[in-house]
Amino acid sequence: MERKLLELMQDVQTAGFWTADGERIITRITADSRQVVPGSLFVCIRGRHTDGHALAAEALRMGAAAVVCERALDLPEAVLVPDTREALVRLFAAWYGHPERRLRLVGVTGTNGKTTVSATIHHLLGRAGYRAGLIGTVSNRIGEQPFGADRTTPEPEELYALLAENVRAGCSFVVMECSSQALDQKRLAGLWFERMIFTNLSQDHLDYHPTLEDYYRAKRSAFFQCDRAVVNLDDPIAGRLLGEIPCGALTCSAGQARADFTAQTIERTADAVRFVLTGAGTIGRIEYPMPGAFSVLNAMEAAVCCLSLGIPMEAIERAMPGFPGVPGRMERLDRGEGCRVICDYAHTPDGLEQLLRTYRPLVKGKLWLLFGCGGDRDRAKRPLMGRTAARYADRIVLTSDNPRTEDPMRILEEVLAGIAGSGVSCQVIPDRLEAIKWVLDHARKDDIILLAGKGHERSQLLGDRTVAFDERAIVRRLLQEKGKG
Asked: What is this structure's pTM?
């Protein structure tokens, strides 16, 4: 694939300084100097540890056709722009022929629930007869065909390649998880969403965002590039968000009559929620095969989004019970013999509390919780998660969860600070495999085991190594060996 520089720069704002030849042929776009080949367009990105501007001259010596920069460089073949991160996104949009302009985009942002809500919307669109794509944490999909996913919201090149594949496959919709990091790094610049869903906001990613306020502002920015919002009115930040965004909004609530859509006559079981969805002159009886109070709001937001896109309530009622769930999201791993074993991605204080509150009323024996906290990430949430665990669980097993470059025991000691003095039994087993074996050996028939933190992940990050570790497969194998799976 080749493009002229001037063609790629059509939608990129420039800052007046341009020494590059607009007729130069570009053979690839990159912000990584190691990937520069003759004909490349090198975009200078300021990172946390390196600044691409310091590598611009070397990129030209390696054969780059031009460089895009934020500050004037005494170099030939340079283009000055106000923001190279935004420029990079718009360059890839042009490189792939602007696939975003031929798709109807739906975004989902928030701390918890993004993956489940986006997957539910994708399911409802598919059952309503639309071919739709999905971009998110667990997997990317084109129609029903899954592809691997490395991060919640891909980097610009991968994102536009995926959007282009969706266009080629005949998709009319793409549903996308929008992470705070992607929004802050302007990976979604230039995209326009028909709908943007806000699930909730709680403490997370404070290793990246300086403060919770910065985290909120990153999330809020998504609502400046959409036609209409769908907002969880039951979240404490919802009122502020609604007062600060420019787009119209539809609100959902499990208990506030002032919301545009409400859930009434809610029933919860160990495997599902049922409720009556009312609003905008319509009534629907929803059965959603995911347990927990928060599942009511997840189902509501997905349903209201699809209703506002023109899908009839009757179609939503028919499709919702068939939602297959998401790997590693309240996923049951046992087959009904012995104790119940649930795997979930909960890795924030709020996510952990919602998981525990879901299963606390359902347990006949003991409620076990096995979890840890990630290394090189927000340390402040560790004792908070410990306190949450002690508030709801009968038995706690602390173990590793992607310790990265930190000492696993140091992480667990910080979690233990939140458990200390609670009187709850707590076992510390840093090796996650040994911890799983231990809890499966000690739990009894009427107990429920919650494995939190890893969810769909298939590896552990230990130091500078990535080690294969598929918790779901491991547990199923161990249960089978015990004759319980």
From this structure: 0.91
